[in-house]
Specification:
The protein has 2 domains: about 190 residues, Rossmann fold (3-Layer(aba) Sandwich), CATH 3.40.50; about 210 residues, P-loop containing nucleotide triphosphate hydrolases (Rossmann fold), CATH 3.40.50.300. About 35% of the residues lie in helices and about 20% in strands. The strands form 5 sheets. The protein has a 6-stranded mixed beta sheet, with helices on both faces. A hairpin with a 7-residue loop joins β10 and β11. The N terminus is likely disordered.
């Protein structure tokens, strides 16, 4: 990433005393093919509620780790602020302990009463501090960690994607809570959260960096105006360069032709010429050549002014999808369905009724643990566990304390899928992604060149194709699963939280794709903006 240096003047009432000054920062991981940051300079105020944006793999989490002093780098990061980071790391041994026993390990000097005050603001019950951490839902774990994070004083807090895997109710809690705080960097791809909780944005563009007042929507509106201006300026320069080149070529041709007439002439046909006219012709030719030289300099200036105009333009490639048409209109029929896992004390869900018709995009909505993923697994089983789904992604059973607890079974009711239904499936889980892109494509019978082309359209750098997938960021892993699903022709696309860790720009790109091709879908997604755009029907659990 090339340098982009910006400073935003503090607004009235803001403190300008505590700042983070980044000067000529350059960083690459040891053995890496490319720099994550190159000659990066900017400054931010630690009193801000700062939204941190950028495409997957641009280095957002890496930058937070640099602030924490985890890596060596060139350049400087200067600040008097102390940092703390969300999420806290939890070992397998700690998972067996209650959060109350982990407070001091997570945050030195943490006081329980302060955590309880923060937990109350998050609408969390104090009893979750005393249950084994492994038994807490994703939303409860997030509440506990945020309560600990904000229980200190004068820290500048680094919050890395706090709403991944959270249901809508938990997201609303986190949104309301963060909107009441200040003094943090929030890494998130949730547009609703960014709009509600931030007053400044720090954006890693393709070739530069932006630091601006306002939330995501304000920045996005400004960016669209800048991009429109850049396109217009680029078009103007292209036209001017074309005119200058044409004119320069004509004048150069005339000068060359004129120069050739200096020596040798027919005294009968050209009776008005003499040897004395050579100097006159030479002077005219020299003047014409000088004009050509001036035009070349103007062309160079125009090209120089044109350079970089489109460097940060966000024009995502047009993705394609290959949905199949099924001979039946009703693809899934569910009536008064109850399902559970073997040995479970209670059903995962009960008395669920809905139909999925061809062309519908149905969103499954409800709290974490209400049975959305269980329903998806049951449907995949009924469709023969979906051969195409298995090619796209491994089909896991329910995870319980890190152990596979098997597949769900119907307790009562009806769950029917159309005969011969081809399914393209995206799982929440990315842990199975290991090894090379080549091996992944071979195992799933995917065309490697087409697969890599889709990843490029999702803005993954070619250099990533040389790495093993376990070294990818979580967002890049999700893009692998999305690309595999897009490359799989199917009657039905079942996506279980596909957008966790996916950057804002790719989310909008995928929205555009789904609205253009209108595939039949059954999906779980807690990004409210995505759901509002895509779902034609909602099934509430």
């Amino acid at each position: 990433m090339t340098n982009g240096s910006f400073f935003v003047e503090p607004q009235k009432g803001e403190s300008a005393l505590a700042q983070i000054l980044v000067d000529h920062l350059t960083f690459a991981y040891e053995g890496s093919f490319d720099n994550i940051f190159e000659d990066l300079s900017f400054s931010v105020d630690t009193n801000w509620r700062l939204g941190f944006l950028g495409r997957n793999g641009k280095g957002k989490t890496t930058f937070l780790n640099l602030l924490l002093g985890k890596y060596e780098y060139s350049g400087s990061i200067t600040t008097s602020a102390a940092f703390d980071y969300f999420p806290y790391s939890v070992t397998q041994g700690q998972m067996q302990l209650p959060a109350a026993d982990l407070l001091e390990e997570w945050k030195a000097g943490c006081e329980l009463w302060r955590v309880l005050v923060e937990l109350d603001q998050l609408r969390g019950n104090a009893e979750i501090l005393y249950r084994p951490f492994r038994t807490l839902s994703p939303g409860e774990r997030t509440k506990v960690m945020l309560a600990v994070l904000f229980s200190g004083e004068n820290d500048f807090l680094l919050i890395d994607e706090p709403t991944n895997h959270l249901d809508q109710a938990s997201r609303e809690n986190v949104k309301d809570y963060l909107a009441s705080k200040k003094g943090f960097i929030l890494v998130s791809h949730d547009r609703d959260l960014l709009d509600a909780c931030t007053d400044h944005v720090l954006v890693l563009n393709r070739k530069s960096i932006d630091v601006q007042n306002g939330n995501f929507s304000v920045w996005w509106e400004n960016k669209q105006r800048r991009d429109q201006f850049a396109r217009a300026e680029n078009e103007k320069h292209v036209k001017e360069i074309g005119k200058l080149k044409q004119s320069a070529a004509q004048k150069a041709q005339w000068a060359d032709r004129n120069e050739r007439t200096k020596i040798g002439f027919d005294p009968v046909k050209e009776h008005d010429r003499s040897k004395g006219t050579r100097a006159y012709i030479g002077a005219k030719t020299k003047k014409a050549q000088s004009r050509v030289s001036q035009m070349q300099k103007r062309i160079e200036r125009e090209i120089e002014e044109k350079e970089g105009l489109l460097a940060d333009l966000e024009e995502p490639a047009e993705l394609k999808l290959m949905p199949l048409r099924h001979h039946k209109e009703r693809l899934i029929h569910v009536r008064e369905l109850s399902a559970a896992y073997e040995g479970a004390a209670r059903p995962a869900f009960s008395n669920l009724t809905f139909d999925l018709m061809q062309g519908e995009r149905t969103a499954l909505c409800g709290e974490n643990g209400c049975g959305k993923s269980t329903l998806i697994r049951l449907i995949l089983q009924k469709a023969g566990m979906g051969k195409e789904a298995q090619k796209t992604c491994a089909l896991p059973g329910r995870q319980k304390n890190g152990m596979n607890a098997g597949f769900p079974v119907m307790k009562s009711g009806v769950c029917e899928t159309a005969a011969g239904l081809v399914i393209s499936y995206i799982s929440q889980d990315t842990s199975m992604l290991k090894g090379s892109i080549q091996a992944f494509c071979r195992a799933r019978s995917l065309n490697e060149s087409l697969f890599c082309a889709i990843l490029r359209q999702l803005d993954m750098e070619r250099v990533q194709f040389l790495k093993n997938m376990e070294d990818y960021s979580e967002g890049q892993k999700k893009k692998v699963l999305i690309a595999a699903s897009l490359l799989t022709p199917a009657h039905l696309y079942i996506w279980d939280e596909p957008l966790n860790y996916i950057d804002v720009f790719s989310r909008m790109q995928i929205e555009k794709l789904l609205l253009a091709y209108q595939p039949t879908m059954l999906f779980v997604e807690h990004d409210v903006r995505f759901r509002e755009q895509i779902a034609t029907k909602t099934v509430e659990f």
